[in-house]
Specification:
This protein is α/β, with parallel strands linked by helices and about 375 residues long. The protein contains 10 helices and 12 strands. The strands form 3 sheets. Strands 2-8-7-6-5-3-4 form a 7-stranded mixed beta sheet, sandwiched between helices. The longest helix is centred in the last third of the chain and has 21 residues, at about 290-310. This is Aminotransferase.
Length: about 375
């Protein structure tokens, strides 16, 4: 399926198995960026309506991707911004603890830790069990068991960012509903590459950086906030988030009303005339492909690698709990990770080190040549 690779401009001599670090830009996304820069040469080409129209289309596309209402989508500059918005609006008069999982991405951990410290609540970490067989199933059950009436919120990623462990969002969401616990989810490492449904999973807030699996530019992102946030406090008081913002002639007719839904949570200058057209082009392509198709493609692509790992003592998570586009490989004893990484670099095979494992992350630009190049280096390491 090499025609997918032609939609990107990756050098032919590299094997980039590292989309979780940063996605390469599609040619169509690059072109959207070029055209946006050219348009900015002459500001008369940018009309007042342009401050809102592209952003509205981007919200609509993201809403389709996560099965939400566009009015409940906000434009954010980063996952940390979106997480802070969700966590700072947690109720302070219910519950006594916030849950996170072990080795959660730092933005989620630090934001939850800071809020707990400020409001006298405890931060409880649900640690991954130190086993291999059945590890993810046990971990998921421990997370579900930890959700009780004392929980104000759980802050968790759709999959574990370091090793691709799948969290059972539907069952976790049901537990949160039962115990009136806010369900705050970081979708940065899967939304776009895996299907997700915020309504089905009872998610209260879903935040996504744009430069990984959404295939967009850096410093762009999107967030869904359920209706329980519709009267929350935004991080900043941007004029663009007020109800009368589109009428430039009456901006000083100050109003206490915000834009509908989650509009109050948009970052300042969300028009971002360079970045929004790029993110729009990326989302159009993702919706054309569909997350289901991407998952099926990378699942098939990775099978020779998974088979090799199982046959030669490399650890990989069990299939039902292993994300197809992102997973970790644990090294057998006798292999020095530093030496392996040096060999991978010399072979121009690009992966990431996260925690104790080698993180592999695949997309449509990857081919069997990439997989075989990686297997060759692993085989030599034995």
């Amino acid at each position: 399926m090499t025609h997918y690779k032609q939609l990107f401009q990756l050098p032919e001599d590299i094997h980039y198995l590292n989309a979780a670090y940063m996605s390469p830009l599609l040619r169509s996304v690059e072109e959207a960026g070029y055209q946006a820069l050219i348009k900015k040469r002459n500001p008369t080409q940018i009309k007042p309506v342009d401050f809102f129209t592209t952003a509205a289309r981007v919200k609509g596309l993201f809403a389709q991707l996560v099965h939400a209402s566009a009015s409940q989508v906000a434009i954010i500059p980063s996952a940390s911004y979106g997480l802070m918005t969700a966590i700072q609006n947690l109720p302070t008069n219910q519950g006594s603890k916030v849950l996170v999982v072990s080795d959660e991405f730092p933005s989620g951990f630090y934001t939850a830790e800071g809020w707990c410290s400020e409001h006298g609540q405890s931060l409880e970490v649900v640690s991954a069990p130190q086993i291999q067989a059945g590890r993810a199933a046990v971990w998921n059950q421990q997370i579900i068991d930890a959700i009780d009436d004392s929980c104000t919120a759980i802050v968790i990623s759709t999959i574990h960012w370091a090793d691709g462990t799948i969290f059972d969002l539907e069952t976790i969401g049901e537990a949160c509903q039962k115990h009136n616990c806010h369900f705050i989810v970081d979708g940065t490492q899967s939304v776009g590459a895996m299907p997700i449904d915020v309504d089905k999973y009872n998610i209260d807030a879903l935040v996504c950086a744009g430069y990984k699996w959404l295939m967009g530019p850096y410093a762009s992102g999107l967030a869904y906030y359920s209706e329980i946030y519709n009267h929350g406090k935004p991080l900043e008081e941007s004029w663009m988030n007020r109800a009368n913002a589109e009428n430039f002639a009456s901006l000083t007719n100050y109003t206490s009303e915000y834009s509908e839904g989650a509009g109050r949570f948009n970052m300042g200058e969300f028009s971002s005339f360079n970045l929004m057209p790029m993110l729009e082009a990326a989302l159009i392509q993702l919706l054309e492909w569909t997350p289901e198709m991407i998952t099926a493609y990378v699942d098939e692509l990775a099978r020779p690698l998974i088979s090799f790992c199982k046959a030669h003592g490399f650890w990989v998570e069990e299939e039902d709990y292993r994300a197809k586009h992102l997973f970790a490989i644990g090294l057998p004893s006798g292999i020095e990770r530093t030496d392996l990484l040096k060999d991978l670099e010399e072979a121009k095979v690009y992966v990431s080190v996260r925690g104790e494992g080698i993180r592999v992350s695949l997309h449509l630009f990857n081919t069997q040549e990439d997989i075989q190049a990686f297997i060759k280096v692993l085989h030599q390491s034995l």
